[in-house]
């Protein structure tokens, strides 16, 4: 098996309208695919060379302890201020590491979403 790239990352959600209000309204992501399934709903957001999806389907359950996606932002301090103003729950941070600044917030289902800014010498 040869793996070429990560095709997409997906967060299971329980309420598509509420989740879309977070991902589109608060995070400002643009929908690139919206597909209703027989027993579910799938929405994708293309970000750079990757895709973040949210989905409602049998067997997909949100988890506060599951995998997470970190979103690279241009203005870290501005992004943190916007999230705080929107009363988004912070899981931890903001913190600074040798290579970046980051914080993790929770989407409406508790899934962890990272807000990330690489330092200039680590692009």
Give an overview of the whole structure:
The protein is of the alpha/beta class and 123 residues long. It has a single domain (9-122), classed as 2,3-Dihydroxybiphenyl 1,2-Dioxygenase, domain 1. The protein is built from 2 helices and 8 strands, in the order E-H-E-E-E-E-H-E-E-E. The strands form 2 sheets. It has a 4-stranded mixed beta sheet with strand order 1-4-3-2, covered by helices on one side. A hairpin with a 3-residue loop joins strand 6 and strand 7 (100-106). The longest helix has 11 residues, at 16-26. The radius of gyration is 15 Å and the shape is globular. The mean pLDDT is 94.
In short:
The chain is α/β, with parallel strands linked by helices and 123 residues long. The chain is built from two helices and eight strands. A hairpin with a 3-residue loop joins strand 6 (90-96) and strand 7 (100-106).
SSE blueprint and pairings:
Blueprint: E1 9-12, H1 16-26, E2 33-37, E3 40-47, E4 50-56, E5 69-72, H2 76-85, E6 90-96, E7 100-106, E8 112-118
Parallel strand pairs: 1-4, 5-8
Antiparallel strand pairs: 2-3, 3-4, 6-7, 7-8
Give a quick set of tags describing it.
single chain; 123 residues; alpha/beta; 2,3-Dihydroxybiphenyl 1,2-Dioxygenase, domain 1; 4-stranded mixed sheet
């Amino acid at each position: 098996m040869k793996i070429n790239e990560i095709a997409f990352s997906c967060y299971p959600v329980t309420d598509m309208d509420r989740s879309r209000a977070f991902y589109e309204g608060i995070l400002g992501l643009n929908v690139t695919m919206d597909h209703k399934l027989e027993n579910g709903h799938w929405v994708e957001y293309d970000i750079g060379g990757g895709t973040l999806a949210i989905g409602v389907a049998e067997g997909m359950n949100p988890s506060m302890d599951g995998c997470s996606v970190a979103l690279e932002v241009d203005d870290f301090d501005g992004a943190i201020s916007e999230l705080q103003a929107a009363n988004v729950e912070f899981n931890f941070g903001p913190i600074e590491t040798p290579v970046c600044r980051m914080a993790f917030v929770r989407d409406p289902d508790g899934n962890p979403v990272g807000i990330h800014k690489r330092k200039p010498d680590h692009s």
